[in-house]
Design goal:
By secondary structure, the chain is α/β, with parallel strands linked by helices. The protein folds into 2 domains: 8-143, HUPs (Rossmann fold, 3-Layer(aba) Sandwich), CATH 3.40.50.620; 210-345, Nucleoside Triphosphate Pyrophosphohydrolase (Alpha-Beta Complex). The protein is 34% helix and 22% strand. It has 12 helices and 12 strands. The chain has helices at 25-37, 60-69, 73-76, 91-106, 147-155, 161-166, 169-178, 182-200, 250-262, 268-273, 323-326, 337-345, and strands at 11-18, 38-45, 79-83, 114-118, 135-138, 210-219, 222-228, 237-238, 241-243, 275-281, 292-301, 315-322. The strands form 2 sheets. Strands 6, 7, 8, 9, 10, 11 and 12 form a 7-stranded mixed β-sheet that branches. A 5-stranded parallel β-sheet has the order 3-2-1-4-5, sandwiched between helices. It is globular. Residues 1-6 have low confidence and may be disordered.
């Protein structure tokens, strides 16, 4: 990419937000257009607080490295890159984090012409309308490329002809090097599990919706977590919970899963007496296994000795985690379980 005369630029800076999992030709085309229109381009890489999964396989540093690999030396000086974490159920938090990231990159923007560049491809692009203070530059896609399809081809280890076409050569080389790492092997195993799981339900006459329960147990400044024993999310921390059984009420299912996964021995009247709240979490893409709606229950015991717990069933470990430690665990939490817990903690 060659830098053009700054006198022709419409903007002092353009903001480009994306997940870039991985960066593909469509992303690079938008970036090239942004560089032609602005003195500087601020790339905000999303989902930077996620553990490594088939949906979010690459870290912030890895994605920054891939993007930088396709830039000329001159353009690297004009492209500023920063991380932005996700907030699944609180758009206000996410907007503030984006604003903070832009302020950290550009400083005071008073009197400067700032724009937001992107392509409104589907419902997930609604974020483009969340920043009225920035002029929107809506660009048409020149290539019909899906990062989801790139990941599927990559982890299924199919012929790489599509991947080779869809990503720039330096990114392709980076992905080839990544394929021999242990992290790739675990991602491929997770992908195979999810693909088999979806295949088992493919014969259903209508799209399947799963119903689950999760227990948020807060006791004396600690939250009860389990570490997942199996795919998906093997090794990640999670809330005790699982699928409801036929003929089972939601609250009863939650108490059953809580006992099965943690060995918590508190009497049922004590647990029911500590039940303070319940909320439905239904983000359409909260689970890679398919459409999954969970009903989360908050059990709150303000003081007392922490009961003994022990991982069992689908958990290889259960433990009480201090709330200040939990606050730093977003990047090792399964699916949206950090956000679910965060929601309830904000109400205590």
């Amino acid at each position: 990419m060659a830098a053009s005369d700054s006198n022709t630029k419409r903007f002092d800076a353009l903001i480009f937000i994306g997940r870039f999992q991985p960066p593909h030709r469509g992303h690079i085309d938008v970036l090239q257009r942004a560089l032609r229109q602005a003195d500087r381009v601020c790339i905000l890489i999303g989902s930077t607080d996620k553990p490594r999964t088939v949906k979010d396989p690459f870290s912030f540093d890895e994605r920054r490295e891939m993007i930088s690999s396709v830039l000329s030396e001159a353009d690297r000086a004009r492209v500023l890159i920063a991380p932005v974490q996700d907030s699944t159920y609180n758009d206000g938090d996410w907007v503030r984090w984006v604003q903070d990231a832009v302020a950290a990159l550009l400083g005071d923007t008073s009197g400067r012409k700032i724009g937001l560049i992107g392509h409104e491809k589907d419902a997930s692009s609604y974020y483009l309308r969340m920043f009225p203070q920035w002029s929107l530059v809506d660009v048409d896609a020149t290539e019909d490329i899906s990062a989801t399809e790139i990941r599927e081809q990559l982890f299924a280890e199919r012929s790489n002809s599509f991947v080779s076409w869809a990503v720039p050569a330096p990114v392709r080389d980076w992905l080839d090097a990544f394929r021999v790492k242990p992290e790739f092997a675990q991602l491929a195993a997770e992908f195979e599990f999810i693909a088999s799981y979806k295949k088992a339900w493919a014969a259903a006459p209508y799209p399947v919706t799963f119903v689950t329960v999760d227990a948020v147990v807060v006791h004396s400044g600690h939250v009860l977590l389990i570490r997942r024993r199996a795919e998906p999310g093997r090794g990640l921390w999670a809330l005790p919970g699982g699928f409801i059984e036929q003929g089972e009420r939601l609250e009863a299912a939650c108490l059953r899963e809580l006992r099965e996964e943690t060995g918590l021995k508190l009497p049922e009247p004590v647990l029911r007496g500590s039940l303070k709240d319940m909320h439905v979490f239904d983000h359409p893409h909260r689970s890679q296994r398919g459409r999954t709606i969970t009903h989360a229950f908050l059990f709150h015991m303000p003081t007392g000795e922490l009961p003994r717990v022990k991982g069992s069933d689908d958990a290889d470990k259960a433990k009480w985690v201090p709330l200040n430690v939990f606050a730093q665990m977003r990047n090792v939490m399964f699916e949206d379980h950090f956000d679910i817990t965060y929601y309830f903690l904000g109400k205590l």
